[in-house]
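Thread: 6-O-phosphono-beta-D-fructofuranose complex, take 2
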Amino acid sequence: MNADGRTRLNHTPEWAALAKHREEFADTRLRDLFAADPQRGDAYTLQVGDLYIDYSKHLVTDETLRLLRELAAARDVFALRDAMFRGERINVTENRAVLHTALRAPRDAVVEVDGENVVPGVHAVLEKMAAFAERVRSGEWTGHTGRRIRNVVNVGIGGSDLGPAMAYEALRAFTDRDLTVRFVSNVDGADLHEATRDLDPAETLFVIASKTFTTIETITNATSARSWVLDALGDQAAVARHFVALSTNAEKVAEFGIDVANMFEFWDWVGGRYSFDSAIGLSLMIAIGPERFRQMLEGFRLVDEHFRSAPAEANAPLLMGLLGIWYGNFHDAQSHAVLPYAHYLSRLTAYLQQLDMESNGKSVQRDGEPVHWQTGPVVWGTPGTNGQHAYYQLIHQGTKLIPADFIGFARPVGELRGGLRGQHDLLMANFFAQTQALAFGKTAEEVRAEGVAEEQVPHRTFPGNRPTTTILARELTPSVLGQLVALYEHKVFVQGAIWNIDSFDQWGVELGKVLAKRVEPALTEGADVPGLDPSTKALVGRYRELRER
Ligand code: F6P
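Output below.
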């Protein structure tokens, strides 16, 4: 029993039923499941908006899915979902509402936090962003010397970087190609240096993105960017034309010297990793234009509505969350691969790493009790086909079970030259071939039938039974990107709800921040920092010695 009176997750009858089912399932092969049900490839699918989701290549039967749904029902996943949409303070450790869904709510929706409808505020900021984005795009907003803005540099980290940077890459085909848009996040000076070395400060707008406006990496880079601009333009007044802020903290923004009229607001009920459809998306909006940004929000909304209203049997985020539970908690899978067969989604997995791992990398339950089960997986992956020539070997024939999501599109986007468009079928042939090979493998008999020498047979046999989800859409449009991201946001929510953890705090990043502050004087001044452990002390000593050589 938990302190809050709930039965511990792993003591529930639903958990026990799944554990028993897992034992009975041990010898089940995907080959047999498909042989027994020729309709499986059609039946185990969902259409959500533009996303066709095929989960037939999973190690599940109707019974598995039923048991998983029973677990979700017993853990009140939908009740917590409704509480989230209603604006209740489900982020218990920070006592905050969790309302990224309000960021894409229609104008006439009512979502209340402490009795106040937040939707009008959301739309007011969207309008302010749109007006500003249009001014930059049209050349009406000029730099301090009257020159047109040709470069936009987003300075932020974590959720204030990964979302907009990922979406910018994803939607590059829809961007204004006359604008150079870059993202700086790392406090390593090389990041800002490389992002600005070929730019003209008179034509560069810095978008300083920080929810708290206290994050050391961002404030350090923003301060350096300000010096770069002021050194070139020589007038403090230039800051007002070359810096805007995206933040919840007007006081700190003003302290930095940015006119709060040029601050785009969001709210404490938007988590950093759930924020790129808020003001944090300004750089993206400048790049793709307000209309496409709106289309992206509509995509998010479509999946929000689906998550909110689809029955459990047809609810895609619920299903994806439950499949992750099945592998992570009942098959000892430690990781989850996300493999987009789309060059433009090159940053998607990095973005999902924060979304998933910062949300569900927890070992304490909502009531403070330790967890007694596995929680969030390691999320990893890169775009296909590159991964095929790197780490897929381990997925196919290694000793670890790695469930994977394959994301692909029927058509390329943008203005690919004729011949390059033709490469798309080859890309997608790989996409389909990989999930087929992972699911069905190649038996020793099949290898022998090819005349392979007996001693080679074990090496050339593929066990198969590697589970994958295939997500297929026509084209990577702004709306489809919104749909995809919302799908993962809600999947992460489902898993956190079942594991009974707070998916919306991130206390695990605090200790490192505090220690970095403490260690810094030892590096800069050689100060004798009390409490430094012997290993770190010796390392810092070696660092200083090497630096002086
Ligand atoms: O990594 C911790 C974190 O708080 C993230 O959750 C957040 O996205 C990031 O830092 C940046 O925070 P801010 O937007 O306040 O600068």
